[in-house]
Design goal:
3 helices, 23% helix
Length: 132
């Protein structure tokens, strides 16, 4: 399945009093990875929403292995777990500059029709882009 990677420099405001990344910020890093994964596929959240589809997270699992700190550069690797249906699942691996695993995570998002607020199948244009 398609993989994308981004680098993020940890900002001071993302850390706690000890200079360690606050655990809740990892969800933001995953979102950043997912947005870039979609963008590199040729899709944006904005265009999906303009076409009446939203993509809320319905499940998030994070396993913390090591800490990241202020000014560290971390690598977020985002991988599609399986072909999307009404849901799309991603697996993530966040590593430090030494390649050590900091966090392993996964998310499940559901395609929702904004008019009916009900789940729908993955849009054809997304499935077509995944076939390339």
């Amino acid at each position: 399945m398609k993989i994308d990677e981004i680098q993020i420099r940890v900002r001071y405001g993302e850390t706690d009093q000890m200079g360690v990344v606050y655990h809740g910020n990892y969800a933001l890093y995953l979102e950043m990875g997912r947005i870039e994964w979609l963008r590199n596929l040729g899709i944006s959240y904005k265009s999906m929403e303009e076409n009446g589809i939203m993509l809320p997270v319905v499940s998030l699992s994070i396993n913390y292995k090591k800490s990241a700190g202020y000014d560290d550069v971390i690598n977020v690797k985002t991988q599609l777990k399986s072909k999307p249906t009404a849901k799309i699942e991603f697996e993530y691996e966040i590593t430090n500059k030494n390649g050590e695993i900091i966090t392993i995570a996964n998310t499940t998002l559901v395609f929702i029709d904004m008019k009916t607020n009900r789940p729908v199948k993955a849009p054809k244009y997304i499935l077509d882009l995944l076939e390339d």
